[in-house]
Structures are given as structure tokens and as C-alpha cells.
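[audit] Reproducing an earlier prediction to check determinism. Same input, same settings, fresh worker. If the C-alpha cells differ from the archived copy the diff job will pick it up downstream; this log only records the rerun itself.
[audit] input (151 residues):
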Amino acid sequence: MLKMFDYNLPPRTLGLPMAVREIVAWVMVALFGVVGAFCLVSILDAGFAGPPQEAAIIAAGIAVVVGVVVLEVALAIFFPRQSGAPPDERERLIVARAGHWAGLAFLFGVLPALGHYVANGNGNIMFNVILLSLFVSGVAEYGSQIILFRR
């Protein structure tokens, strides 16, 4: 048990199953997945062509911000050295590749939404699709980080 709090050892020797950045990725996938599902349900209740659900959007924004702050505080408490350390070369490449894939996922949601707006002039559908694309791209980014960390 005391060996777990020896921060000079790398994560695998501490008995941790994964690196701190991978733990962050798992938590963020769960956070974006749950909050995105909540937004999807509220949008489906009102219909894609319905007006944006302000209460659900505000609640989702607050939930994401609070979740990230709680995660960062927990990392600073439990892993003070690893959480503040700059990413190594492998982690930088993983984050860059995952960010690229997330950008593509966001693009595949935004372009059809903009095209639909140009063709039909319905800004409500465009807003709802872009909002959901944000959550999909967040899940894609951190999910691909998990996959790349596991390789």
C-alpha cells in the first residue's frame, strides 16, 4: 500500500494498470459520452428542427467544466508529479494524432450541418448537429488516445 504513494516510480511499477494520461482519457470519454447522450436525448425530445434546448445546453456546459476541474484536482492530489509533468515524445505524438482524428470527426458533423443550412435555412438543425458533433469529436479524441496508448 505504501509503495503506491512512491511517486518516483513509473506508473506500471506503482501497481497502476495505465499511465496518468490514459486515466484522463478514460474519464474524459465517460464524461463526454454521458453529457453528449444527455444532450442527444434532450434534442430528440424536442426534435432536430426544434429550437435549441437552452437548459440542457447550459447544464451540459457546466457538467463538462465541473468534470474537468474535478479531474484535474484529483490528479493533482493523487499524482502530483505525473500530472504536472510535460508529455514525453510518445505522448505528444499520441495526442497530436488523436486531435487530428477528432478534428476530422468534428468536420464530418459540421460540413453536412452547414450544407443543410445553406440548402434549407434551418439554423436549429445546424446548431443541434454541431453541438452533437462537439461531443462526438471529444469521444473520438479521447477514445483514440486510449487506443493509441494501448498499442
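[audit] rerun output stored. Observation attached for the diff report: The chain has one domain: 18-150.
[audit] end
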